[in-house]
Amino acid sequence: MRAGVRLVIVLIALFVLPVSVAAAALRMDGSTPAPARVVQLVTNVPASTLNQVGAGELSGPTAFNVFKLHTGQLRSHGKPELLTMNLAWCPHCAANSWALAVALRRFGVLTGLRVIDSGTYYCTLVSNPCALTLSPCYPHTHGLSFLTARYRSSYLSFAPIVLQDVNGHNLEHPTRKQNSVLNSFDRQGETPALDVGGDYAFLNSGFSPGILAHRSWSQIAGSLAHPRNPIARRIDGLANLFTAAICRVTNGRPAGVCKSRGVVAAGAARLAHPPSVPPG
User: Fold this and answer.
1) How far, in Å, CA of 6 to CA of 168, rounded?
2) Which of 1, 46, 91, 187 is the most exposed place for a label (fewest CB within 10 A)?
3) Phi and psi torsions of 206, nearest 5°
4) DSSP label at 57?
């Protein structure tokens, strides 16, 4: 999320209280089950399209941070783990969610996807006197929720954390281990935050949520197969970058994905020499 609201997010991070997974499932985050057509389009983006998009059109390093970590392997069930932290009302999280779903599908089977409208709660925070600066608030950004998602993969484990629902109510909380991992590169409590196997981290959105303005979930999903579409240039490009990072922790497996032209191009563009986060 943009630097202008860092103080707000820090305050939120400090006051999020633990909620059990069972309780979170009952409370939900404001999402609804994704229509079958949306799921089909998101989880079946043609490899030819992803290869044509390559590195795509992503925000620069001052707005979208990519880090090389030194925390050691983040693993679960004997596999590298992808850990992500989001807020249901965060438009930047909604933007990233599309690319994350596309990337995850390349390594396994993703079910239980839901669609979510980020609403206007973020706008009230941006206009709050506590915010450092005013910034666009991107109301009603349409994204995907992983709150009840299930993921089956031979290569990767997936641990999504939804801190708050669309109205700013506390929902889930990282474990002590997860919190330590996230704090290693996200000391100001910004979202969205994503850790890939303890080797690479991503902070903030890969592109402006404004590109999704006034687009329905079906329109966004329908754009992903068209490599010249401005939305596909962002979402598919970010998906290739996430995929490249995942490939670094799966030792290049599956080879057909990890050696694909689009993934190689995205990795070369942003993973070749990322800033390094020192241990501790």
Assistant:
1) 16
2) 187
3) -75, -15
4) S
C-alpha span between 86 and 204 (Å, rounded)? 10
- Residue 168 pLDDT class (50, 70, 90 cuts): very high
Decide: 196 and 190 in contact? Cβ < 8 Å: no
End-to-end Cα, the chain, rounded Å: 23
CA–CA separation, 98 and 163 (whole Å): 18
**Residue 130 token pair:** 């506590």
CA distances, 100 to each of 81, 131, 205, 242 (Å): 14, 28, 11, 7
8-30 pLDDT, tens per residue?
343 343 334 344 444 444 469 99
The 10 Å Cβ neighbour count of residue 202 is: 27
| pLDDT tens-digit map of 250-262 | 999 999 999 999 9
| Bigger pLDDT: 80 vs 13 | 80
Closest CA to 268 of 104, 54, 101: 54
3-state percent breakdown (helix, strand, coil) of the chain, nearest 5: 40, 20, 45
Per DSSP, the three-state class of 190 is coil
Residues 6+ apart with CB under 8 A from 99: 206, 234, 235, 236, 237, 238, 239, 241, 242
Query: Where are the extended beta strands (E) located within the chain?
Result: 32-33, 65-68, 75-76, 79-86, 108-111, 114-117, 142-145, 150-153, 157-162, 193-196, 200-203
Contact 176, 182 (CB under 8 A): no
- The residue-averaged pLDDT of 193-210 equals 96
Q: What is the pTM of this model?
A: 0.89
